[in-house]
Amino acid sequence: MIPRYLIDFDLNSIPHVHTDVIVIGAGIAGLFTAIKASESNKVMMITKKSLLDSNTRYAQGGIAAVISDEDSPEYHIQDTLMAGAGLCDPKAVDVLVHEGPAGVKDLIRMGTQFDLEDGEFALTKEGAHSQRRILHAHGDATGAEIVRALSEKTKMDPNIVLWDDHFVIDLITEDGECTGALVQKPDGSRVYVQGKATILCSGGTGQLYRYTTNPDIATGDGIAIAYRAGALIRDMEFIQFHPTALCYPGAPRFLISEAVRGEGAVLRNINGERFMENYHPQLELAPRDIVARAIVSEMERTKSTFVYIDFTHESEETVKHRFPTIYEVCLKYGLDLASDWIPVAPAAHYMMGGVETDLYGETAVKRLFACGEVSSTGVHGANRLASNSLSEAIVFGRRIVERINKLDLVTKTPQIKETGHRKESAIQPIVEKRLKLQKVMLRYVGLKRDAKGLEKGYEELRRHLSIFDVSLSKREEYEFANLLTCALLTTQAALIREESRGGHYREDFPERNDDMWRKHTVFNRELGLTEEKMEHA
User: Fold this and answer.
1) Catalytic residue among 148, 261, 288, 525
2) SS3 content of the chain, % helix, strand, coil (to 5)
3) Does the pLDDT of residue 57 top 70, yes or no?
């Protein structure tokens, strides 16, 4: 069994630091929420690397919000529910859609500069959207622009204390309430940070897979520490694989934005044939899970490791203007987006599940909140609609701060001594263990799954459980323990769900089954697995 705490410690012998609000992680969720919270609170922002290291920084497509007169909240709701394949919470979707435009205005006030055309926002369209509603910045560098603006504001805020290169080992709880976090400093020493409220903004689990668009820091830390603290972890089987990541020798799995297909790019197999008409009436703009599986099917059929994305119908000037970042990265590897077909393949991109929250971001553990990809608000269901994630972060970040400001919170000082359980032991090199875990996930818990493979994958993962029995001290060891926790939850949830829906596809159960499976899979460390029926089912 996964233990309550990762390490042995005596809270009484560890230095204490006090603040009002603790924000764990950066990205749009952490930065935006910290800024909003700092308007009436002292904030401690803890990042394990820096403000500039997050999934948000690599977000190309943009942020979805109803801005155009030709669009409407009803259209956005409809598109989100359709993509979510029956598992969205309509109340959460309603919140997202109606409060998203105000959140965009907040971002602009905080310094974000979105692209304009003739004085109006330049809106694009992405897969499964019925309207042009995606705001973007510098063509295809939306995330980088948001991080730039928010990080500059954060650094100037006198109410925000920033701790870079600090690792949150575990959350401290007493009587079902979160009182703060146990943190390891760059020099290896540890400190207990106490707060009236703690907000997880730590991102997703991309590093579960060998091929991912996520940076190295996406190791599922927030989900794992919340799980150990007693929070509910929901819908871990739903992993979104982005259909089009650069697949070229020597190049990283760099994201080729869905907006490229939104602007008319087409997919071709290794023989140069367009193939999406064989899989879905929306062709290249079908939901991401459908496009990703179609690409894998074509790769298997043609015995290839990639397909092509073809954007050569556009002029070089247009390509450079609309997608400057993608153009420059491809060019580094001798590929010209304007004249070459670009080799692509699916890669792990986004996690729909996470720490279950209410409509104000609060978890089952009082005073513990979650925002952004680490959370499961009910917005994304079984498959995230493109560019809804940035909107979700700002909408629920603002709601979290509203809830915190209304709560009469008193800082508690628990007396916890967790010691004597672990032995000193030589640990197999973590790089090797992490690679083995990623290979297991790719092989058995990837885009296509079946019972035999999932059972084999689960047993192979369980062999690593001994890591919880030894004394850990390095960030890489903590990260592996967190990845292992997330891998076990994901594999178990995928094995239990005997149907195919959204980002979860079972070859032995290829059909969606609303009668049996229109419900959530929910894990709790003490109670194990529960099934949460849909209120609106």
Assistant:
1) 288
2) 35, 20, 40
3) no
Integer Cα distance of 17 and 14 in angstroms: 10
H or E element at residue 123: strand 123-124
For this structure, is 288 an active site residue? yes
For 1-238+352-409+417-537, CATH number out of 3.40.50.720, 3.50.50.60, 3.90.70.10, 3.30.300.20 equals 3.50.50.60
With tokens 């994305």, the residue in question is: 309
Tokens of 159: 């109410």
| Euclidean distance between CA atoms 82 and 74, whole angstroms | 12
242-348 CATH fold: Flavocytochrome C3; Chain A, domain 1 (3.90.700)
Q: Could you tell me which of 143, 89, 88 has the C-alpha nearest to residue 114?
A: 143
Cα angle 498, 503, 507; round to 5: 45
Closest CA to 65 of 413, 394, 355: 394
Backbone angles phi, psi at 99, to 5 degrees: -100, -10
Instruction: Give the closest residue to 182 by CA, choosing from 14, 394, 413, 2.
Output: 14
Residues 6+ apart with CB under 8 A from 122: 114, 115, 116, 135, 136
SS3 sequence of 151-209: HHHHHHCCCEEEECCCEEEEEEEECCEEEEEEEECCCCCEEEEECCEEEECCCCCHHHC
pTM value > 0.70: yes
- Write out pLDDT tens, residues 246-257: 999 999 889 998
